[in-house]
Amino acid sequence: MSSSDPFWRCDRCNVTTRQMAGRERTECPESWTERDGVLHCLKCQRDVAADLAVEQAGDSSVDGRAQVRRWAVVEFELERDPDRSDGEIARAISSSVPTVSKARKRLEARRRAA
Ligand SMILES: [Zn+2]
After folding, report:
1. Measured in angstroms, how far is the CA atom of residue 109 from the centroid of ligand 1?
2. Where do the domains of the chain lie?
3. 47 CA to middle of ligand 1, Å?
4. Do the beta carbons of residue 48 and residue 12 sit within 8 Å?
5. From ligand 1's centre to the CA of 87, what distance in Å?
6. What is the pLDDT of residue 30?
7. Burial of 57 (0-12, 13-18, 19+ CB in 10 A)
8. Kind and range of the H or E element at 50?
9. Cα 113 to ligand 1 centroid, rounded to whole Å
10. What is the pLDDT of residue 6?
11. What share of residues in the chain are helix, strand, coil (percent, to 5)?
């Protein structure tokens, strides 16, 4: 790997990642997102989703906020890639399969209601 290899820096946590060989230079690293020129790694996308959910929930108790964050991360992952199994998502975010499947049902119910 040479110093001219392209790399990205997350605008939120400053973590960097290098371009994978053989991919388009302009392509965002897998699972990263760029919006309005702001680049976020996967961890920060989860954090941002969780922060937003806490803000919207308006629950000021520590337990309440922790729960809202957990749900938000599960829902973020379900929306990011809904084709993965509940087990895969649970592993990716250190959650449990029942939690993920419950969140999936909740999301689906919400979609039907919308
Ligand atoms: Zn980040």
Report:
1. 31
2. 7-40, 43-113
3. 9
4. yes
5. 25
6. 82
7. middle
8. helix 42-57
9. 33
10. 73
11. 50, 10, 40
Helix 42-57 to helix 62-80 angle (10° resolution) is 130
**Structure tokens belonging to residue 79:** 């929306």
At residue 21, the pLDDT reads: 66
Would you say the pTM of this structure is higher than 0.85?
A: no
Q: What is the pLDDT along the chain (114 residues), one digit of tens a residue?
A: 455 667 889 999 999 988 666 656 567 788 899 989 999 999 999 999 999 999 999 988 999 999 999 999 999 999 999 999 999 999 999 999 999 999 999 999 999 998
Copy the structure tokens of residue 83. Answer: 């084709």
User: Ligand 1 mean position to 48 CA, how many Å?
Assistant: 10
Could you give phi then psi for residue 41, rounded to 5 degrees?
-75, 170
* Pairing mode, strands 33-35 and 16-18: unpaired
**Would you state the structure tokens that stand for residue 14, as one six-digit string?**
């400053």
Reduced to 3 states (helix: H, G, I; strand: E, B; else coil), residue 61 is coil
